[in-house]
Design goal:
Blueprint: H1 40-52, H2 54-69, E1 83-90, E2 93-100, E3 108-111, H3 116-131, E4 135-141, H4 152-167, E5 172-176, H5 178-188, E6 196-199, H6 205-216, H7 220-234, H8 243-246, E7 254-259, H9 267-276, E8 280-285, H10 289-295, H11 297-307
Parallel strand pairs: 3-4, 3-5, 5-6, 6-7, 7-8
Antiparallel strand pairs: 1-2, 2-4
Helix pairs in contact: 1-2, 2-7, 4-5, 6-7
């Protein structure tokens, strides 16, 4: 496997990302409450609550998980790129849809919601994509509630399907982290797109839940209860959402970008997607981290080249001895 090392100073960026002072909030963006900081004291309290009141701890933990996986919304105002905002009313919810360019006249790129860090980084992507002739469509829920009916993953995939039905087939769909997993799920459910880019993608919902439980200090007993509550709420087991179960049915070209030292989502989860997606290639970076890949100009340039039809990254050959990845 070719290891591609990207440094932020290695090349001039394709676009300038506006400074935080230039990125004023625009109507409809929603901010989830910040995750509870899991310092040693917090972990000790979580552990004690789990021992004394495991049912209460599990319900509380599920709300914390909802907060942590909640998205901040769309990229904010992108200087030099005129935008159009509209509200899409769906049954029981409203989506704020933001478009740069005209998705009905131009090939367009669909962006699912992002967390706060990713939202700011994607402003540079919007400028690069529009400069290359693409329209960009992003969306976010208006008035997100903590008590979700299903999960961030399933809700986002469903919202992508609705936006795709109204805008038509996308030239590409790009997702980061949990949003990348939502992209794969939406494609599996019928989202029409010619290409996809998965950045720092989560491939294993059970492993993601386990990382949350380990970091919080809630303990395995509470973690098992959270898993049962979540699976009851979404109406299926998390195993049904594993990458090796849904990815093989997707045949469009996919570029998987993942940092070898990602400390939030292990590199092997991106590698797993690259093996199980039938037409995927893997671009491995080094020393960029989970969010750093979004800010790297070389990664952005490679992704635009991929959208233009170039072969970027390496083809990963699956082995029957490693069907579900490795740790």
């Amino acid at each position: 496997m070719l290891l591609s090392r990207h440094a932020t100073h290695a090349a001039e960026p394709l676009t300038d990302v506006p400074s935080p002072s230039d990125a004023a909030p625009r109507g409809g963006d929603t901010e989830p409450r910040p995750p509870t900081p899991f310092n040693p004291w917090t972990r000790a309290v979580q552990c004690l609550i789990g021992l004394l009141a495991p049912r209460h701890a599990a319900r509380r933990g599920l709300l914390q998980l909802d907060d942590e996986t909640g998205f901040a919304g769309c990229p904010r105002y992108v200087e030099g790129c005129p935008e159009r905002r509209e509200t899409l009313a769906l049954r029981g919810r409203c989506l704020q849809v933001v478009s740069w360019g005209d998705p009905h006249r131009q090939p367009y790129v669909l962006l699912p919601p992002l967390d706060a860090t990713g939202r700011e980084a994607m402003a540079g992507w919007v400028r690069a994509l529009t400069a290359h002739g693409y329209a960009v469509v992003a969306f976010a829920r208006e008035g997100r509630t903590v008590a979700m009916q299903t999960s961030t993953l399933l809700e986002t995939a469903g919202d992508m399907l609705e936006v795709g039905r109204r805008c038509g087939e996308a030239a590409a769909v790009i997702g980061h982290s949990l949003g990348a997993m939502s992209v794969v799920l939406a494609l599996h459910q019928g989202l029409r797109a010619k290409r996809a880019i998965l950045v720092s993608a989560q491939a294993d919902p059970r492993a993601a839940l386990q990382r949350f439980v380990d970091r919080s200090g809630m303990g395995q007993r509470v973690g098992a209860r959270i898993l049962a509550l979540l699976e009851s709420r979404i109406g299926q087991g998390l195993d049904a959402l594993q990458a090796h179960r849904i990815a093989p049915a997707i045949g469009i070209p996919v570029l998987v970008v993942h940092d070898l030292l990602d400390d939030e989502v292990p590199w092997d989860e991106g590698e797993r997607f690259a093996r199980h997606l039938t037409a995927a290639r893997l671009l491995t970076t080094l020393d960029l981290g989970h969010h750093g890949v979004l800010n790297d100009p070389t990664v952005l340039r490679d992704c635009v080249r991929f959208l233009e039809g170039e072969a970027i990254g390496d083809k990963v050959v699956s082995s029957p001895n490693l069907p579900y990845g490795f740790s």
